[in-house]
Design goal:
heterodimer; A: Helix Hairpins; B: 500 residues; mainly alpha; two-stranded antiparallel sheet; 19 helices; membrane (chain A); NUOK/Mnh_C1-like (chain A); CPA3_antiporter_subunitC (chain A); transmembrane (chain A); cell membrane (chain A)
Amino acid sequence: MIIFASCIILFLIGLYAIVTKRNLIKIAIGFAFIEYAVNLLFALIGFKHGALAPIITQVNTPHNFVDPIPQALVLTAIVIALGTTALMLTVILRIYNRYKTFDIAEIKKLKG
Amino acid sequence: MSFIPLFFALPLITAFLIPILGKIFKPLIWIVSTLVSFVLFIISLYGIAVTQEIPMVVYKMGNWPPPLGIVMAFDSFSAVTVFVISIISFTSCLFSYRFLSRYTGQWKFYTLLMLVIAGMMGISITGDLFNMFVFLEIAAIASYALVAFGIDAKELEAAFKYMVMGEIGGLTFLLSIALLYAKTSTLNLADISYSLQVVGHTPFFWMILGMMLFAFSIKAGLVPFHSWVPDAYPAAPAPISSLLAGICTKVFGIYTMARIIFNVFGLTRAHDPMFFNILIGMGLLSIAFAGLTALNQTDYKRLLAFSSISQVGYILIGFGIGNFYGIVGAIFYILAHGFAKGLLFLTSGSVVYATSTSDLKKLAGLGERMPTTAWSFRFGGLSLVGIPPLVGFFAKLFIILGAIKAGFLWLAVLAILLSILTLAYLLKIENSVFMKKRKSDTKRAPFTMRIGMVFLVVLIVIIGIGFQPVMDFIVGPAAHALLRGVEYANLVFSHVLVNF
């Protein structure tokens, strides 16, 4: 249970970084934290103590496997996270070219 | 072969064909994407016809049966969403042809547009929770890129804000999927519904629901989490604002929320009045706050963006009322607001195309020079306010009827009073853009742009006048599909073998 709670804490650390940090790159790092937290949680959900990798070699062997679905989900989630991180860093670089700063407080051409 | 995979496969294939087609002959990009969205429109009409006879069409991906494989579950509610998506994307494509002439890299635009369409189609027909997340991210990532399409300082800033908010929403949704999987060990919506009936409404269940509500409120741009909307819509090119405001927020936030609340979690007003009251409260907050803020805006598109936030609140109220009429009203509102706000953003695009500005103080007297744009704006605006023969009237009528039937007389009165706000801020645009004396000579809107706008005007009028058949064949069955609640799961499992 503690290990699950620590995933949520990691998630909250990422959220804290996104909300309070003023540097755009640090915000992107905050997202990386959140993505890792969720992926770790998925992997832990499928984990069982002393179980084998989910590869079936013989049909009749009594099997004690870990749940393979979360592992497949994590793979998909990693690919999506890669896409968003790449796009986010591209936008951040473009913003840097336009504004010459990474400070979010100085990027305010739009009034909120 | 089933028609269901076509909904997302067709735009997805087109998206990756477009770069090749652009190398052969440039106008082919536009022709193919418009044609594909029109074909999707035809297929969605066929889908509506099919759902009249079979309440649930199930398509098994790779022929794996439901709890193991991913299924596509197409019912009347999906049919409505798919119908609106195809129409708005068709008009956006039509409109883009001349509007994009001042941008470079047009094939990137159409590729991303097709990806957004594919993602939205996928969300509305999928029967699997993780699949829903994947389609949500496909559509969301493509829309972040589309908002930044102008790559100017303002567009980039808006896109970054949208991306930060959208990703917080998306990742919270993923976290809630993880927690739900830990509890139920399945990802199939129907199967989740079965195991939640066994588990019951524990505090853990409410925590997951709260996280999902948070995620979808961000995606739908409801009031405490709306800050990305008024930046992203004005920054995006007009056809994309039309698509985002017209249908994206509704599919990303409202459709998913309604599907999960009613069909998967099986909540009903009778059992959980507290939760439905929260929905009504959030809706009222959105309508009042965004409506009042819209009154102060001096930018055409920014004003319309605040108006969208406010109108989405009505949809939420409809679902919050939770009886048949309320839900019919909400689904009618998805239709009505999709067409009306799509149309209004197209008129803003036409104004920007002609004058290169969207500042209300600089615009004046365009009404006589651009009659099609002006009259389209008036029809769209009147439908949004709720003037009788137009479709927006029936949407509001059913929500108010639902509120009265549920015993919320104050809510009915409040909904009518708050629609005066809508009239007020739309009159502000009418007054400063289309009335007054003309300052300088402007271009007229090109033919393809006018066709797109007229198409939506015709739909608004026709669906308004012929609301009875639309109610009987499209919206009514969709409301029944939601009110069916957890019966959804039985339908999915019993219709697996019905081939279509």
